[in-house]
Amino acid sequence: MMKMMGFASFDTTKGKKVDGAANAYAINVSQKRKYR
């Protein structure tokens, strides 16, 4: 999931991984759905 979004260097948000990853994932999915 992180690799797909390009968050390879997102190691600093390890503590807030769920919050950041979940938020980014949801936004990405929403945009992709709209785009498609």
From TrEMBL:
<dbReference type="GO" id="GO:0006397">
    <property type="term" value="P:mRNA processing"/>
</dbReference>
<keyword id="KW-0507">mRNA processing</keyword>
<keyword id="KW-0508">mRNA splicing</keyword>
<dbReference type="GO" id="GO:0008380">
    <property type="term" value="P:RNA splicing"/>
</dbReference>
<keyword id="KW-0539">Nucleus</keyword>
<protein>
    <recommendedName>
        <fullName>U4/U6.U5 small nuclear ribonucleoprotein 27 kDa protein</fullName>
    </recommendedName>
</protein>
<comment type="function">
    <text>May play a role in mRNA splicing.</text>
</comment>
<dbReference type="GO" id="GO:0071011">
    <property type="term" value="C:precatalytic spliceosome"/>
</dbReference>
<feature type="domain" description="U4/U6.U5 small nuclear ribonucleoprotein 27kDa protein">
    <location>
        <begin position="1"/>
        <end position="36"/>
    </location>
</feature>
<dbReference type="InterPro" id="IPR013957">
    <property type="entry name" value="SNRNP27"/>
</dbReference>
<comment type="similarity">
    <text>Belongs to the SNUT3 family.</text>
</comment>
<comment type="subunit">
    <text>Part of a tri-snRNP complex.</text>
</comment>
<dbReference type="Pfam" id="PF08648">
    <property type="entry name" value="SNRNP27"/>
</dbReference>
